[in-house]
Structures are given as structure tokens and as C-alpha cells.
Amino acid sequence: MKELDLLKKDWQKSEASFEQLSEKDIYAMIHKKSSSIVKWILIVSILEFVVLNGIGLLLPDPYNSKYNELHPYLSIAVNLNYFVILGFIYLFFKNYKTISVLNNASILIKHILKTRKIVNYYIYWNIIIGGYIAAFSFIDSWNQSWKESGKIGSIPDHGTAMILPFVFAMLFIMLFIWAFYKLLYGNFLGKLKTNYEELQKIES
């Protein structure tokens, strides 16, 4: 009986060690995956910034000058957007540097949640500012072309008539931007959510 009891105790100890080792292995795997996901979020956001702004730089300078002259308020919004996006990219970089050196599951959970929130805020910002700039630019350009042809007046003279087209244009463009970012970052957010749920199981 004593030998049997000793064997049971030894087996339980071995089982506990095995479970502890498994949790460490799982954490290491989740940590590595989370770090990789945040790194790719950073890379994609930088590429997105470079490509989208690079398109604008490729346009002839006279076109940009004429656009800024016709749309001064949009130019301010575009310049503001540069600084906001660069701020988000900095936050992505900061999160990546922090997550890559973590060795604590509970802290990793907090930073995964933080990263998901920042990415969602980033998407919301792009939807709102992108929808506003694109819709206003479309309506303003349309109104300007008709004004020059002598068919209608400016937006201030026909503000009420332009409200519905502006709203519909903005909503349509915002929906398009949402779908684009859902496709671009949705997979990353889904994987981070899965990692978060796995870490919750380890901590519970």
C-alpha cells in the first residue's frame, strides 16, 4: 500500500510538472504569435501610409496647387490626418516593442486588449476622416464644375439641396472604407482575440 501511495504521489507530481510545462509552452507560442501580429499591423500601417500618400506626391504639382486653392479646408483636414496617422503608427511601434519583451501572461493580456482598441480607433478615424474628405471633395468638385458652367450657384447658395447628396456620398464612402479596413486588419484583430481567449484560459 505504501508503495502504491508513493507511486500515486510521484505520478501526481509528474502530472503537475507536465501541466506547468505545457502552460509555459502555450504562453511562449501565444507570445510569439501576438508579437508577430502586432509587427505586421505596424508594417501594414506604414505601407498603407506610404502608398496612399505616395499617390498624392506623384500627381503634378500644378494639380496639387489648384486643389489646395479650391479646397483650403480639405487641405487642412488632409494635413491634420497626416499627423494623426503618424501618431497611430508610433503607438503600433510602441506596442510592438513592449509586447516583444513581455514575460507575463496577465500583462500580455492587457497589451493585446490595448492593441485591439488602438487598431479599432485607427479604423474609426480613417472611416470618419476618409468619408468626410472624399465626400466633401466629391460634392465640392461637382458643385464647382456646375458653377463654372453657369448652371447652378455655389454650395452656400444651395446648401439645403446639397445636404442629402453629401450625406449619401459620405455614408457610401465610409461603408467602402470600413470594408477595406475590415479586410486589411480584420484577420489581425481576429487572431489577437483568439490569443486573448487562450491566455484567459491559462490565467483562470
What does this structure look like?
With 204 residues, the protein is mostly helical. It has one domain (15-203). The chain is built from 5 helices and no strands. It has helices at residues 2-58, 61-70, 72-99, 105-149, 159-203. α1 (2-58) packs parallel to α4 (105-149) and α2 packs across α3. It is elongated and about 70 Å long. Residues 14-19 and 152-157 have low confidence and may be disordered.
Quick rundown:
With 204 residues, this protein is mostly helical.
Helix content bin: over 70%
Output the radius of gyration.
26 Å
- Sketch the topology as an H/E string, one letter per element: HHHHH
Calculate the mean pLDDT score and round it.
Answer: 76
Largest sheet: none
